[in-house]
Design a protein that fits this description.
Layout (H helix, E strand, L loop, with lengths): L7 H18 L9 H8 L3 H7 L3 H22 L10 H13 L1 H7 L7 H8 L14 H24 L6 H14 L11
């Protein structure tokens, strides 16, 4: 089986474009970002951009797919089968990846991005397990799933915006406590 080796220059170009898009999305919505402005930021020609991507959404989709693939690989290394509630260790591993790629996730989880990526990350092999909703009808499960996903994304957004003052372990603990036990008996103290 022959594996296709990606040219170093191509890798460099794509990395530059990814960085340019992340930088641009810190300031404006993906729909307002032009290919021309991305090329200026990345210091490449538009013809080079179009050799790899159709438009800014194609580049965004490439980045999103890369993120999802990386998280999936992390989960596979941990033997996470998606059949039970996510463990502290697995969520903490994902959050370490988020921390290592903070500027990327600030862009992907911001209002300047399409909301689909947020749902895709949190739905990744049922990070929010539907098993905790057993016995409920489908509509109730859907509502609770949306509530859980939105809550998790909001916690991550706040954590990233604040400069990630808590450890990944503390945020993992917070998310899991809220997801699986609610806020009625909530007890969590931010340790810095």
């Amino acid at each position: 089986m022959e594996t296709k080796k990606v040219d170093r220059r191509v890798k460099y170009t794509i990395e530059m474009l990814k960085g340019a898009l992340v930088e641009a999305m810190q300031k404006e919505h993906i729909s307002k970002i032009s290919v021309k402005s991305l090329c200026e930021l990345a210091d490449i020609n538009r013809s080079t951009f179009y050799a790899h991507f159709r438009d800014q959404y194609g580049l965004l989709h490439h980045i999103e797919q890369e993120v999802l693939d990386n998280i999936t690989r992390q989960l596979e290394r941990q033997d996470f089968d998606g059949k039970g509630p996510i463990s502290f260790q697995v969520l903490n591993l994902i959050l370490k990846y988020v921390r290592q790629n903070a500027s990327l996730f600030k862009a992907l989880l911001s209002d300047n991005c399409e909301p689909d990526i947020q749902r895709e990350i949190m739905k990744l092999p049922d990070i929010i397990s539907v098993q905790i909703y057993e016995g409920l009808d489908e509509r109730a499960k859907d509502y609770l799933s949306v509530f859980g996903i939105t809550g998790c994304v909001s916690i991550l957004q706040k954590w990233l915006q604040d400069g990630m003052p808590e450890s990944t372990g503390q945020i993992s603990e917070l998310i899991l406590q809220v997801l699986y036990h609610g806020i009625a008996d909530f007890s969590w103290t931010a340790r810095r």
